[in-house]
Structure to design on (171 residues):
């Protein structure tokens, strides 16, 4: 009877060990697949940064419960982001068209560089918008990202969220 218990225990340990190794390799495979997808989106300059939180310089974080994003394409950068913070001269608080960080740029520079550990740094400089100086995206290989917006006439602001594929448009 004691031998039967020992055999059962050894079989149980062997089964448990193979399940753990299998689960770890599946997780690693999923992470590698996700990293390859994110790398392809960045290399193709065809992705959406979905903002989830915003971090104004003068206050705490705020959860964004509606859809705010930055769409990046080969020939267009389109921003629809909120803004809280201090505005300097020329920032129209009284104008509906100047609320938030909303613009479409067709003339911009795009530079992506790999980070030392994992992920990428992406610098976008719109040349045909009067208020935005630079957009800096820091993207991790799992798709999580931070966006810092540096403006000519407002305090800088940071957003956190994630990178995803652009939705397919129906023709």
């Amino acid at each position: 009877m004691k031998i039967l218990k020992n055999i059962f225990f050894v079989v149980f340990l062997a089964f448990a060990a193979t399940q753990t190794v299998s689960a770890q390799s599946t997780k690693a495979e999923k992470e590698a697949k996700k990293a390859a997808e994110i790398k392809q989106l960045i290399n193709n300059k065809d992705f959406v940064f979905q903002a989830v939180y915003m971090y104004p310089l003068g206050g705490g974080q705020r959860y964004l419960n509606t859809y705010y994003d930055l769409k990046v394409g080969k020939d267009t950068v389109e921003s629809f982001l909120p803004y809280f913070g201090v505005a300097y001269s020329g920032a129209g608080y009284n104008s509906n068209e100047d609320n938030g960080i909303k613009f479409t740029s067709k003339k911009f520079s795009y530079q992506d560089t790999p980070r030392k550990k994992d992920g990428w740094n992406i610098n976008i400089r719109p040349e045909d918008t009067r208020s935005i100086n630079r957009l800096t995206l820091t993207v991790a290989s799992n798709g999580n990202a931070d966006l810092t917006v540096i403006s000519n006439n407002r305090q800088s602001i940071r957003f956190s969220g994630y990178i995803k594929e652009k939705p397919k448009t129906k023709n």
The chain is about 25% helix and 40% strand. The helical segments are 2-43. Strands lie at 47-56, 62-72, 77-81, 101-105, 108-114, 120-126, 132-139, 144-151, 157-164. The chain has one domain: 39-164.
